[in-house]
Amino acid sequence: MSKTPPSGARLPRGQAPSNDPLVDGFLRNYAMRGLHPAARDPLGVVGGHAGHDLGALTPALALGALGVVFGDIGTSPLYAIKACFHDGAFAPSETNILGVLSLVFWSLMLVVTLKYVLFIMRADHKGEGGLFALFNLLRKDGNHFSARSMKLIVLCTLAGAALFFGDGMITPAISVLSAVEGLGYATDVARPAVLPLTAAILVGLYALQRRGTGGIGRLFGPVMLTWFAAIALLGIGQIARAPEVLAALAPHHALDFLFRHGLSGFAVLGSVVLCITGCEALYADMGHFGAQPIRVSWFSVVLPALTLNYFGQGAGLLLDPAIASNPFYGIVPGALRIPMVLLASMATICASQAMISGVFSLARHAILLDYLPRMRVMRTSWIIPGQIYIPAINTIMMCASVLLVFAFRESANMAGAFGLAVTGTMVVTTCLYFFVITRNWKWPLWIAASLVSGFLILDLLFFGTNLLKVVSGGWFVLLAACAAMLCMLASKRHQDGNWRLTLSRGSIPLETFMRRLGEIALARAPGTAVFLGVEAANTPKSLVDILGERGVLHENVVIVCLRRTGDPTVEAGKRLAVRHLGLGVHQIVARYGFMEHPNVPELLDEAESHGVPHDPALVYYLGGQSRPKAGHGPWENVLDAVGGLLFRGEPPAFTSFGIPAARVITEAGDVE
Predict the structure, then answer these.
(1) Angle formed by the axes of helices 194-207 and 147-186, to 10°?
(2) Could you tell me which residue ranges the K+ potassium transporter C-terminal domain spans (predicted)?
(3) Which of 56, 100, 169, 597 is the most buried (most CB within 10 A)?
């Protein structure tokens, strides 16, 4: 695959070369694309609400957070308690019910409230959260990692991203299926229609993605507020009938359950973890709403509603153990079950939408960092640049979700796969968080280790118990994550191989280049040559190479640097900044909005009015497009084969910038 060569690529300041292509390529791309801490948001991925009074907007933002941030965790009552008693390993006796409820409650308190809401959410990068925010924090000046440590950090980030892709496939399937299963519980007549109806809803949901989340998103907050109010009222009604269930608030019930049942007791954590699915969204979506609105929503609405409903399901089980096959709908009055199915379906669509949008955002980051092939990315909003739609990813997720529904047939059967994806991502987040608080915040090692070890023990307990369910469903997320990881590594190897010469560290500052150019007697050829770059302060590598190899320079040299802004469009009068550097060298810095796409020939036409020579017969030097050598072992050969499949038929990247192929000159060479 070809792409606009990011000339002048260097590692960020403070980072020594690791001599590892995986690490250095990852870091160079962050630096080149403007994803390092020095840049707020050059790619147009707007997070937070810069320029607004967050305090004044907190109620509105808190309502929006209900619909997006808490959609996943808010619909967990549909299947969490059901999964704990699904396989019949535990009878719905009073001691077991109190033990499971205590595990659920303290999981919410320790993992979601303590770990994420009170601690992890403090680790933001300019208001942004998520795995890439943690990585950006680690990239700050002064953080010096060994090559081995940095490689571990890069691999952890990629592993978390791969698990997130798997989570994105499972969440819509398990959420919508668990909601529609209420029809089968309400009437046997509707039972055969559960799977086809679920598939139809999923297809419709994915079909709507091209319209963007803007219009649908305005409904998310009110829908989820209604949902939380409804599940809270259901819980209160049942707790009033069996108030003894509140004894589960005491943590000794959880400990007693675990130690009384031994290994099987710890195995139930693989189902309990379903109550905290979506906790990563609290952190990953922080940039869209701010930390304070998310905390307000959690403490005032979400946590009370979830606790009341979980305890209400426990009370319902105490009163009637026969509802263990579906405790959520078991506590819904018969006359309200159909309306509740409709409300639950709407809530799960909100939950699914949030995850799908999250996968789009993550995929876009991977594309920009060359860990995925170039795909068509469509902007769906002129206001919020983060609202995007990627048709290829959407199709893959739709097919995977529908296949999962028919493969597993019941939401409880997906619990193992779902929990494994969630807990794996949690482990990665905790590990990266440890580096942040020790390297960035300079916490004493013993304090950081004490805190993080507590979090990590909980994460590993949940992750370990879900590993026990690999055979019963967890295999899917492992397979999906491995496939995603393989594609990302193959894509990176392929693109690094194709552009290794361009991405090398050999670029020099532009001022140094111009000074040296004036000191030598250089032959000049007639005509105009255009060199593309991304850093205005550096000389494109292709220009340095051509001059060094040929000793001849065109009469006119135009260096074009393209920059992306956080605005939808850029006014025509503010688009160009032109510098005449002397000796026939001109530099154009062009700014484009996130709803625009650069067209280099049109840009050059516009620059003529700024004194840049216009030559109809100009040529474009895109640098040394290199050919990767054959792999040195089985693993390298596998990556090369996968990369060849991913990039088969891929057109050169320069064509998307309007550059005619007939005027492109590249210098090919082999690289290691």
Answers:
(1) 130
(2) 526-666
(3) 100
The alpha carbon of 46 is separated from its chain's Cα centroid by a whole number of angstroms, namely 14
Residue of 380, 379, 97, 113 whose CA lies nearest to 246: 97
Task: For residue 510, give both structure tokens.
Answer: 């532009």
Query: For the chain, which residues score pLDDT lower than 50?
Result: 1-57, 500-506, 624-628, 668-672
Structure letter (DSSP) for residue 631: P
What tokens appear for 578 in the block? 């032109």
pTM listed for this prediction: 0.72
Tell me which H or E stretch contains 518.
helix 510-519
pLDDT tens profile 540-571? 877 887 777 778 888 899 988 887 775 657 77
Q: Please, are residues 541 and 5 in contact by the beta-carbon 8 Å criterion?
A: yes
Dihedral sign computed on CA atoms, order 439, 443, 444, 445: negative
| CATH of segment(s) 34-492 | 1.20.1740.10
**CA 262 distance to own-chain centroid:** 37
At position 425, the amino acid (one-letter code) is T
Q: Which residues pair with 561 in a beta bridge?
A: 533, 589
Residues 36-45: tens digit of each pLDDT: 333 323 222 2
Quote the CA–CA distance of 248 and 265 in Å, as a whole number. 16
Contact residues for 238 (Cβ-Cβ < 8 A; gap 6+) = 245, 311, 312, 313, 315, 316, 319, 331
Strand partners, 585: 557, 582
**Tokens read off for 447:** 């304090």
